[in-house]
Design a protein that fits this description.
Dihydrodipicolinate Reductase, domain 2, 3 domains, 10-stranded mixed sheet, 6-stranded parallel sheet, 20 helices
Length: 590
């Protein structure tokens, strides 16, 4: 049956992206990490994400077969309860993957939001939704993960939405929530004039109208989902993970197509510590896009957790650069050597991704000018905030009317140590625990004394205020100066101590910045940062303030930000289109 119209559409959030991940994308449990990259891409663009997931490839068929083996061929009411478990499992796994990289994510059962179904229990439509509950959850979390393919009947029992029903789940929720975008993410980057698996030079639709889409889609999109999207004039995007291409289905558009090409880019890793090994693991899951050409280390004989082959690892920078990488990822830390390596990368024709806030803060102008002269890209999102996209949020706020001030907990290591001190842990032990967890370096002084946070403030000043700020202009207070009496007094008063970093303009327009230890109420937004979490408040000159939170230290949050920069560069440098803008008279589908 076709779903009925949704009454009382939710109006917020206006920046909502509904992203649907099908079984062709979720080929195995590890594929949730690639889905997490795609979700992070939209989160750091300032969009709230509702991810709708299918079961991992093959699980639905296996559950159907199990049900038939146990209960016979009849469509018993309990079969829907069994078959929907594939989507529930995929949603839980994706939420875990998102939490690992530092995003505030939550898996939501369709019954929790009363996603109402009507019709045949194994081929139903959707007809209702608890908007208030879903809106509350969206306000509380950056990402919601909803299992597709099922809803809840009036009698409380689950019902399935038919083959390809996750498409319908995504489209229905997108219409109901007035989403900014509904993007169906599949194993091909859009709709094609001919089968891209058979045609050596396939032409992909950049846009297509509803009539042509209905003619060519075949099994690409569920019929009910396509009909529902057309009925509500929904702009629908068909895309693949990590790709810059897509096909947009829009009302009354002229169908047009182009040729598309994707190249593999060679990546050199400078530094192979905690974060470097995480980046390498991500790159290995994207061998269609990237090839690791070399890894620079200080000690080639050091025992590592990575399975990187020995021939990639070298202590000779010249050997690594001689392989002519397309992208150099700088993670060695410090200033002088890092600066030289980055400049060498530019003039060797490579783009650069850096996680090094010290070199970026110290040599910001020099490095950006060098990138411009060489015509190369310089990305450094991971230098600030770990998995929290702080620099991107500041860019958006500055472009949206300006920033009045910034206040945040931006050093996850210091925050972890402060939490342990408040629990009665001795200072030296708290530092050791931070080192053991990979939050603190062997020399933790930059985190303790505020230098790390100060370097981040220098970069935040550039993005939020478009103004230079030097570390020697920032007043800093060290955790080493914190005594037990101060810690006990805060705890007894029901308050918490946080290392708070701030930037604001004084009455004369000059920037004032500080890194200080402040005792704040437990209900303060910044007090809610626990362990290695970061939190940031951007006070806008116009509009609403921006609140960000997530993990700011550790392997996976930082590696996620590095990978996001790598994927951005690939979309910019490694993927090409030739726009033709021609009317298609006899379209065919992939």
């Amino acid at each position: 049956m076709r779903p009925t119209i949704v009454e009382n559409k939710a109006q917020e959030p206006s920046n909502l992206a509904v992203l649907k991940f099908g079984g062709s994308v979720l080929q195995d449990a590890q594929a949730v990490h690639s889905a997490a990259h795609e979700i992070y891409r939209f989160v750091r663009r300032g969009e709230k994400v509702l991810a709708v997931v299918s079961a991992i490839a093959g699980e639905t068929d296996a559950l159907v077969a199990m049900g038939q083996y146990i209960g016979g061929d009849n469509n018993a009411p309990g079969s829907a309860s069994l078959v929907r478990l594939g989507e529930l499992r995929a949603a839980a796994l994706l939420a875990l993957a998102l939490e690992r990289v530092g995003l505030d994510a939550r898996a939501v059962d369709p019954a929790e939001i009363d996603l109402r179904a009507k019709g045949d229990p194994d081929d139903a439509g959707l007809c209702g939704l608890d908007h208030d509950r879903l809106s509350t959850l969206l306000a509380e979390h950056e990402v919601l993960v909803v299992p597709g393919f099922s809803g809840v009947l009036d009698n409380g029992q689950p019902a399935l939405l038919g083959r390809g029903g996750t498409d319908l789940s995504a489209v229905y929720l997108g219409v109901a929530l007035n989403a900014k975008r509904v993007r169906l993410i599949k194993d091909v980057d859009g709709l094609y004039v001919s089968d891209p698996k058979l045609d050596p030079n396939p032409r992909r639709f950049t846009q297509i109208n509803w009539d042509d889409a209905a003619e060519i889609c075949g099994n690409s999109i569920q019929d009910h989902a396509l009909d529902y999207a057309q009925k509500h004039d929904l702009r629908l995007e068909i895309a693949a993970p990590a790709r810059g291409f897509d096909t947009c289905i829009t009302p009354q558009s002229v169908s047009a197509h182009c040729s598309a090409q994707t190249n593999k880019l060679k990546v050199a890793l400078l530094g192979f510590g905690t974060v470097g090994e995480g980046v390498y693991a991500h790159l290995q899951r994207h061998k269609d896009l990237f090839e690791v050409s070399g890894i620079l280390v200080r000690d080639a004989g050091k025992k590592r957790n990575s399975d990187a082959p020995a021939h990639l690892i070298s202590t000779d920078a010249g050997e690594v650069f001689a392989k002519r990488p397309d992208i150099v990822v700088e993670m060695i830390g410090g200033v002088d050597s890092a600066d030289a390596f980055i400049l060498n990368a530019f003039f060797g024709g490579a783009d650069v991704v850096s996680a090094n806030k010290a070199v970026m803060a110290e040599n910001f102008d020099t490095l950006n000018e060098a990138a411009g002269r060489a015509g190369r890209a310089l990305h450094y999102s991971a230098a600030v905030g770990g998995g929290v996209p702080m620099l991107e949020a500041l860019d958006q706020a500055r472009n949206g009317g300006g920033v009045r001030s910034v206040q945040g907990v931006i050093n996850g290591t210091a925050n972890f140590i402060l939490d342990r001190l408040a629990e009665g842990c001795p200072f030296d032990q708290a530092v050791k625990e931070a080192q053991d967890k990979g939050f603190a370096e062997a020399d933790p002084s930059a985190d303790l004394d505020g230098d790390d946070a100060a370097a981040k403030l220098c970069l935040m000043a550039r993005h939020g205020f478009d103004a230079p700020l030097r570390a020697n202009q920032i007043a800093m207070q060290s955790l080493s100066d914190l005594d037990q009496e101060h810690i006990d007094a805060a705890r007894n008063a029901g308050k918490v101590i946080r290392q708070i970093s701030e930037i604001k303009r004084d009455d004369k327009g000059a920037l004032k910045a500080s890194v200080s230890l402040q005792t704040i109420d437990k209900d303060h937004y910044l007090a809610g940062a626990k362990g290695e979490q970061n939190r940031l408040i951007v006070h806008a000159l116009e509009g609403e303030n921006i609140h960000l939170r997530g993990k700011g230290a550790g392997r996976w949050p930082t590696a996620e930000a590095v990978m996001a920069d790598l994927l951005d560069i690939h979309r910019l440098r490694g993927q090409y289109e030739e726009k033709l803008n021609v009317r298609v008279s006899e379209p065919a589908c992939a």
